[in-house]
Amino acid sequence: MPELPEVETIVRALAKQLPGRRVLRTSLTHRTLYRRGSLAMRWLVQKTVEDVNRVGKNAVIWFDPVGVMVVNLGMTGRLVTRRRSDRMPPGSRKHLHGRLYLDGGFELLYYDPRRFGHFYIAKRCDFANDLNIGPDPFVVGLSYLQEALEGRTTSIKALLLDQRVLSGIGNIYADETLFHAGVDPRTPAGIAGKHAAKILSSAQSVLTSAIEHGGSTLRDYRRPDGSRGNFQFLHAVYGRGGEMCLRCKARVRKIVLAGRGTHFCPRCQK
DNA sequence: AGCTTCGCCTGCTTGC
DNA sequence: TGCAAGCAGGCGAAGC
């Protein structure tokens, strides 16, 4: 599922391919893919891509002169670039839900088997306050996180998943972060506050390493050229319930916490 | 306001 | 082998 490292990998690839290309035509199969308040994708026709970057788990495509398109990939969304003269990627037509036809024979395709993803298209001036998410884990200071944790009774894992607190961390990287920080995911956030420095530095190092490895491909995630990420081979706890902890050889536990499958080492994480 | 639960979706896995 | 139930989860809405 695309979290910060996967989206970062995607936008870096798109930023090399899309800027300068003009939208000729668009298509979208389900209106339900629009996030509330979105303009129709058609509004982007004749606008030119200026830049592509990431805000939290969202890929953001900026258009000249005034447009912006936010793509939230949900769990199974994929952005794929191709030349129209090339063959379509095999076997995936059924889940092709969005399409930006660009000049120069290029196009941007959106695949999403589960259709949990969302598009949000707006004028730039309307966009600024619409994305209700907190700061990026790479730019916050320790004092910000300490204040965010203070007095909170919910679990530290639930808090790390809350995009209004920090944007970009999802289930995989929450579990990996807490393993490297040595903090039990069930710890109330307020109590975990004394480990805030370790949690923040672990989040940053886990996310950095994941970006360097092109993200984690469990099932659906692919880079825009179709290649897989490699960070899944470096997961310490995520997806390893019942297996041996790589550090202490205790058995990795899997529980449900905050409604999510949660993996941790009961010996390394207190 | 803070916290939890639910519904949206489909494909894969599990159990009978 | 085939079918049904269970499970996965980001996010927004609804409920407590």
Q: Estimate the helix proportion, in percent.
A: 10-25%
Secondary-structure element order, N to C: HEEEEEEEEHHHHHHEE
Write down the overall geometry.
globular
Multimeric status of the protein: single chain
User: What is the spatial order of strands in the main beta sheet?
Assistant: 1-6-7-5
- Total number of beta strands: 10
Residue stretches low in confidence (pLDDT < 50, at least 5 long) are: none
Strand % is 15-25%
| Radius of gyration over C-alpha positions, nearest whole angstrom | 19 Å
Work out the helix count. 7
Class inferred from helices and paired strands: alpha+beta
How many angstroms separate the termini? Answer: 27 Å
Main sheet properties = 4 strands, antiparallel
What is the residue-mean pLDDT, rounded to a whole number? Answer: 93
Keywords summarizing the entry:
alpha+beta; 270 residues; single chain; four-stranded antiparallel β-sheet; DNA-binding; globular
Topology:
Layout: H1 4-17, E1 23-28, E2 48-55, E3 58-64, E4 67-72, E5 78-83, E6 96-102, E7 106-111, E8 118-123, H2 124-127, H3 142-149, H4 156-161, H5 171-181, H6 189-192, H7 196-212, E9 253-257, E10 260-264
Antiparallel strand pairs: 1-6, 2-3, 3-4, 4-8, 5-7, 6-7, 9-10
Helix pairs in contact: 1-7, 5-7
The chain binds a DNA duplex (16 and 16 nucleotides) through residues 1-3, 32, 35-36, 57, 72-76, 95, 112-118, 152-154, 158, 161, 163, 170-171, 219, 258-261.
